[in-house]
Each structure stands twice: as structure tokens, then as C-alpha cells.
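REQUEST
  id: r-88c1
  op: predict_structure
  target: Coenzyme A biosynthesis bifunctional protein CoaBC
  payload:
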Amino acid sequence: PRERPLAGRHVLVTAGPTHEPIDPVRYIANRSSGRQGFAIAAALADLGAAVTLVAGPVTLATPPGVHRIDVVTAAEMAAAVAAALPADAAVMVAAVADWHVAAAPQKVKKGDKPPALVLAENPDILATLAQGLQRPRLVVGFAAETERVVEQATAKRIRKRADWIVANDVSGDVFGGEANTVHLVTADGVESWERLPKAAVARRLADRIAAALVLDPFD
Ligand code: C5P
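RESPONSE
  id: r-88c1
  status: 200
  body:
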């Protein structure tokens, strides 16, 4: 029989981009296909976890056995994450837009000059979760960086109070691609994984999450 070490555990995953409307027909967004996050949700479900996947706008099929909640904006994602608690672990893979636009209620018309976008900060969903009263026992964040990848991920782990940061170097062709090169940054140090298909990164991370939850002496 297949091992299901995460049976009875609830794991929350965010994936995909968020879209922040400029007006009813336009938006700003971060680049993200959602593939790494969906693969992680699938791998966790394979290990027996009850998975809640809060997904931004992507065109991907829901992995078998995964409970999916579709959202569009960062504010909606933050609300869906809060509503899905409690959870034993959370893996925040979404490429959340850092800002939203003071959106116009009607379509903005072309004029003499291009309109200025007024941006306001979005909530940091990972930092809010990691510092909240219902903090999951294991909080995993992602960091997409184009330079000084490990250094920035290490700082991000501390700043956001995450347990682990999965850092990926996005200076290459990772967006929408099949493979990923990641470094797992924990309190114990940095582990650099070889370039792997996103499904293999997902399986390895899911195995590590299972080990962390199951071996926890306070469990
Ligand atoms: O600060 P930065 O965007 O690089 O952090 C990336 C990590 O934080 C990812 O895990 C991402 O899902 C999460 N994040 C978030 N809410 C935001 C911004 C980032 O949950 N508003």
C-alpha cells in the first residue's frame, strides 16, 4: 500500500499570480503560471494530506483530491487563506502582486496623456500568516530572485518569520517552464537541489514537509 504520512493533516497552498484591476478591462499582475504550486498541492495530496489550494487566475486543472478556491486579487487571496485556517502547514507559492491600483469604476479612455496609476500596498499574506494567532506549525514561503538568490532568501526567511524559504533563481526560463533550480533555506542552513522537473521539486518538498510534521516531538 502507498504510504500516506500526511493523512489527517491539513495543508494550505497558494499558487498562481494575482490580478489587480486598473479598470473593468485592464489589470496588473506578476508573472506566474501556477505550475509549481499546483504540483506541490498534488504531491501533498498524494501523501494523504487534506489540501486547500487557493489559486489565482491560471489555466490549470485541479489536481485529484485537492480542494481548490479560486481568487483574483491579493485581497481575495488573503481572505481565502484566513478563512481556510487552521492548517498544520502552509506553502505559499503564489506570486502575489505587491500593489493594487486605485481602480477606476469605468473603462479609462485614451486621452492626450497616459493616465498615472496610483498604487497602494497589498497585504503580505505569508508574513501575516506566519505572525498570526493561528500560525500553522510549518510555514514555507517561496522567493523568486534574479540575483544573490540564497542571500536574499535567507533574509526573507527571518523577515517574514517563515520556517523555510524555497528560493528559486528566475533569471533563466523558469516561468511557465517544466524545470526549476531551487535552494531550500531553513534554520539549519541551505540545501541546493539539482535542476529538477517541477513535479520532482514538488515531491521532494512534500516528503520534507511530511518528515517535519511527523517527526515533530510536540506533535
Ligand atoms: O517578498 P516576496 O514577494 O519576494 O516574498 C515571496 C513570498 O511571500 C512567497 O512565498 C509569496 O507567496 C509570499 N507573498 C505573500 N503575499 C504578498 C507577497 C508575497 O504571501 N503580498
